[in-house]
Design goal:
225 residues, TIM Barrel, 10 helices
Length: 225
């Protein structure tokens, strides 16, 4: 797998677009991550807390680590001190725990609210109604140690491009609708995280600001780890 060339192609693809690349490094060894880092990548995404913590300890400290996987409340404390962005907040209870850990560390933790846009039941995420209810709640408005900076979603895993596009369009539409609302001080709609290795081009066309790409950079996932 030619990591250097793959990154060069992504940089070229994104050069005239207002979208950034999150290199998804889950299951990848540190030497491959270091190789991507040497090519100028600074944002890496992980989906397991233990793996993320281990990599943070040994890899360069100017890496922006993003938590992109489903996050359990009892594991927030392990990544709270250093995580740059949590993409996968899907409940008020999780947001409360992130706020609590932010308070303990005297920092404000940036988060994205995960929206369920796929036709698959296996995906996590809030419905539009749950999103609005959460953002308008007094509990969220009172949180001092979180900053909701946008939304995240995962499209259905399908070959049907029209369905993927429709799902991304629905998320972008919701994002734009929320932008127009009067939001609490700790909520803004700045980032829209959508698009992965198989559908990032459609996501960028539909307004993504963060694409989460793993196998198109590093090769197929290594399930042995």
């Amino acid at each position: 797998m030619d990591i250097k060339n793959n990154i060069k192609e992504f940089k070229s693809f994104l050069s005239d677009k207002s979208c950034r690349l999150v290199a998804v490094s889950k299951t990848k060894p540190n030497d491959l991550i270091q190789e991507a880092y040497n090519e100028g990548i600074r944002i890496f995404g992980e989906n397991k807390v233990q793996e993320l913590s281990d990599k943070y300890e040994v890899l360069p400290k100017d890496i922006e680590w993003h938590m992109i996987g489903h996050l359990q409340r009892n594991k927030v404390k392990y990544i709270a001190p250093f995580v740059s962005l949590i993409h996968s907040v899907d409940s008020l209870r999780l947001l409360k725990e992130i706020d609590k850990q932010g308070q303990k560390n005297d920092i404000v933790i940036s988060c994205l609210l995960q929206i369920h846009i796929a036709k698959e039941e296996t995906k996590f995420g809030l419905s539009e109604e749950e999103l609005i209810e959460l953002i308008e709640s007094e509990e969220v408005a009172e949180m001092k140690n979180i900053k909701v900076v946008g939304l995240m979603g995962m499209a259905t895993f399908t070959e049907k491009e029209s369905q993927i596009r429709e799902e991304f369009q629905s998320l972008k539409s919701l994002f734009d609708t929320m932008k127009e609302k009067s939001l609490p001080d700790n909520v803004e709609m700045a980032e829209l995280s959508m698009g992965m290795s198989g559908d990032y081009e459609i996501a960028v066309e539909e307004g993504s600001t963060l694409i989460r790409v793993g196998s198109a950079i590093f090769g197929a996932r290594n399930y042995a780890n």
